[in-house]
Amino acid sequence: MDRKLEKKFWNKKRILMIGGGAAVAMLLLYTLLFADHRATLNVEKDKITISTVKKGTFDVYIAVTAVVMPLKTIRLDAIEGGYVSRKYLDGGSMVKEGDSILRLDNQHMMMDFVNHETEIYRLRNELQNTRLSIRQQEFTMQQTISDIDAKIAAAQDLYDRNKQLVEEKIVARQEFNKNKFELEGLLRQKDIQLQSQKYQQDNAKMQITQLEGTLARTQRNLDLMRENLNSLIVRAPVSGQLSSIDVEVGSSITAGQNIGQIDDLNGFKLRADIDEHYVSQVFAGLKATFEFDGKSYEMLVTKVYPEVKSGRFQADMTFEKNTPEGIRRGQSSPIRLVLGKSAEAILLPLGGFFSDTGGNWVYVVDKSGNRAVKRNISLGRKNPLYFEVLEGLQPGDQVITSSYENFGNKDVLSF
């Protein structure tokens, strides 16, 4: 006969259901407690740049572009105005000191010169005639004095003889007194003539001095006008290269107008354009390095132009020792301008990440190499190659340094 079988509670089906439910519960609990809930973005590793943080020497410098210029440039300015009647040399020509470059004509200056020259001739003739007249007056005065001296001598002889005779009462006292008065009159006349002669001589000297002064001043004016006429021929003040000449035949030039320049090729300097951010850090005496033809040349900042134009200012640099052979005016080249002393630091290569994070955080690749996690950092100074790391990174860390523009604000990047 059939027996009734008792149904078991822990049957296979129930065990599987309870075990499966427990596993799911444990998985949910693990996910809730331990799983990474940070926002994750999948990226292609070959489309990003990963750089290694290292420890090394941080050089405080900036890279600027400089243009080769002559050590000295001499401006050619017109001393006098006029129109260009002849042009002897064109821009780019080599010149020697004193070479004629162009000629100006100025009819007004020519007329003034001729008038002053005529005045010189007139003054010379007047001075010569005055001297001749004075000389003739001197001869006349000498003749007059000579005549008076002869009369005085005769009167004196008569006076001496009559004086003795009047004492002997041979000559009347009246006759003697007449001779005496005549002698005294002649002496007074001579004294007047001598005073007159002295006055005329002093007056003649004054006239001659005035005429000579006028003649000398007129002569100086004439010499200056002659120099000005000579300056109508523009000559090279130094030897070098006539780098520019900005006039043509027939052009009208005003006094003081710049017409070109000459470059002294005995030395060169470099003029750099620098961002206005560094205007307070650049000053005369800073050192710089110039690379040319595989060699490095030390340079020194000699002059800073503080005026800022379009966000940039300029500085001149000269070579401390030898000038490189083969450099040419107008040639541009990068210059490494040192702004401070070098120091040991943790270095992070530059990259596009900075424009997206401001240097406040980066993505650091973990040890697995399969993902990168956001990490807060602090950066210090910057040079053309590296940032100085202050906090948050250690040598050997792998950092994504390319742009983060397409990553949004994800916490984790998965490769």
TrEMBL record:
Keywords: Coiled coil, Membrane, Transmembrane, Transmembrane helix. Belongs to the membrane fusion protein (MFP) (TC 8.A.1) family. This is HlyD family secretion protein. Residues 345-403 form the Multidrug resistance protein MdtA-like C-terminal permuted SH3 domain. The chain crosses the membrane at residues 15-35. Pfam families: RND-MFP_C (PF25967). It is found in: Cell envelope. Its main location: other.
